[in-house]
Fold:
Amino acid sequence: MEAIGMALIANAAHPLRTQQVARAAVRALYDEMCLYPKPGLVSKTDNGSHDDMQAATFIKSLFSLRHYFAAIYEAGARNADFAELTRLGLAAEATMLRATSGVNTHRGAIFNLGLLCAALGKADVADEPADLAQIVVDSWGADIKLADSKDRSSSHGNLVCRKYAVGGARGEAAAGFPHVFKIGLPTLTAIRLADGSVGAARCQSFFAIMAALEDTNLLHRAGVEGLHYARTSAISFLAEGGVFAANWLQRAKQIHHAFVARRLSPGGSADLLAATLFIAAVTERAVGA
Ligand SMILES: CC(C)(COP(=O)(O)OP(=O)(O)OC[C@H]1O[C@@H](n2cnc3c(N)ncnc32)[C@H](O[C@H]2O[C@H](COP(=O)(O)OP(=O)(O)OP(=O)(O)O)[C@@H](O)[C@H]2O)[C@@H]1O)[C@@H](O)C(=O)NCCC(=O)NCCS
Ligand SMILES: Nc1ncnc2[nH]cnc12
Structure:
């Protein structure tokens, strides 16, 4: 995406920058969806472990979110509080559900990417270069944790987080997205610098995230055994050389089919890959990411 590859425009209030950020967020969701193989997940090649979603559902969904990403970026730039970000996020969830006729494609991404857009807004108006992960932790970490402890909703994620005592999407955000900044991005950059293709870099980044993440979608569908199976598969893939192994594509496809046979779907890992691609694009961390 050429516009996104442009040098950053210093003035956050500039509408071009808002547009650039919103387009990068939508583009990251699109690139995540297109990536294949991606175990158990929807791509243009197949629907993975899903009966109710296909590539077209994701395209409708991500397109519907373009104004949301612009709005939450601007909210961050004017130092909006967490309550305002949450209102924008909830409205975006409603927009997504209208676009997909009720299918939850991007609830996690609305939260993760939304917070990262807001953090970028804040960073763009700061006097000094600022660390995005630190902005998330310092600005909204306490509110995220507070909202977590108050939430008694019966969402899949909430039930799973309580049952298995894991942090889920909120834990990841409150900690400053360690799976994005400490795993997804360094992996993406390393593979590109080693002359890996864009697809190989994204694939390796996805496996690296999945190997480490407590993905509540996996826990919801298949419990601790499902999560363990998925993480072990990813760890083996990486230990066998990952995308540097001669047969890596075949191996990744095998893992994909094994996930589909077990109905496993690492949706949280997919969201964090999208977040990784977004950060790489807006900060130009990984060349041609
Ligand atoms: C803060 C919320 C988003 C929290 O929601 P919830 O209580 O549900 O908690 P989590 O499960 O922890 O997270 C929700 C989604 O986040 C993704 N995710 C999962 N694990 C992680 C993780 N460790 N780190 C980061 N992100 C993670 C995942 O999203 C993807 O999967 C969704 C599809 O899931 P599901 O509906 O269960 O679909 P299926 O598996 O297909 O179900 P079945 O078919 O089996 O029935 C999809 O959305 C992907 O994106 C988790 O699902 C929320 O409560 C909230 O507050 N939202 C509004 C506020 C907001 O957005 N604010 C924005 C800025 S503050
Ligand atoms: N490509 C994908 N397939 C299924 N669930 C997802 N959640 C986020 N991205 C996804």
